[in-house]
Specification:
Helices cover 58% and strands 0% of the residues. With 191 residues, it is mainly alpha-helical. The protein has six helices and no strands.
Length: 191
């Protein structure tokens, strides 16, 4: 999965370098296609580029048009993938599947062709997940709970019920005597 991202990053860098104003010619349709691409409206940019007649372009404009037409299908696919991942991530988030949601949100944030609003929403959810994780870690006990003894140093006796249910309906419950307490207030032994 790393290689496709690197390829997309390489393509995007190449397109951005080509689209700098100094390298950009005066063709209005080509300029508008570039703006649409930068606004993440890849389909509209593609439609406009396909309508531009190459005969009306100089060599630099032809090269730029060809580069854009080559990257736009990848951008469309990546943008659609981001939209699908957002739906899947939200579903996982709402189901409490934090790891899956986090993985999908991270993928959206890393997707340079994802619309800005999707990337922003994914960043926000990642922040929420990070806070949840911090709270979960802070709420964990610092040591084992089962083996701890009360402050008096003596283990607590297991509690027993004061009475047991009647053996037969209507019979009075049998009472058991509990052992006397061995500790007083503050854990002091009672004598």
């Amino acid at each position: 999965m790393v290689q496709p991202r690197r390829r997309l990053s390489g393509w995007a860098l190449g397109v951005l370098l080509l689209l700098t104003p100094a390298a950009f010619a005066d063709n209005a349709d080509l300029k508008r296609a570039r703006e649409l691409f930068q606004q993440h409206d890849y389909r509209a940019a593609q439609e406009l580029l396909l309508k531009i007649q190459e005969a009306n372009l100089n060599d630099d404009e032809k090269a730029e048009r060809a580069q854009l037409l080559q990257i736009i299908p990848k951008a469309i696919d990546a943008s659609q993938r981001a939209a699908r991942e957002k739906v899947e991530a939200d579903t996982a988030y709402n189901a409490g599947k934090w790891n899956e949601a986090s993985r999908l949100y991270e993928s959206i944030v890393a997707n340079e062709f994802a619309p800005p609003e999707l990337r922003s929403a994914a960043r926000q959810r990642l922040d929420e997940l990070s806070k949840r994780q911090q709270f979960a870690v802070a709420a964990q006990p610092s040591g084992p709970v089962r083996n701890q003894q009360p402050s008096g140093g003596q283990p607590m006796q297991q509690m027993q019920p004061v009475s047991s249910p009647p053996a037969t309906p209507g019979a009075a419950p049998q009472r058991r005597e509990l052992p006397p307490p061995t500790q007083g207030p503050g854990g002091q032994p009672m004598t």
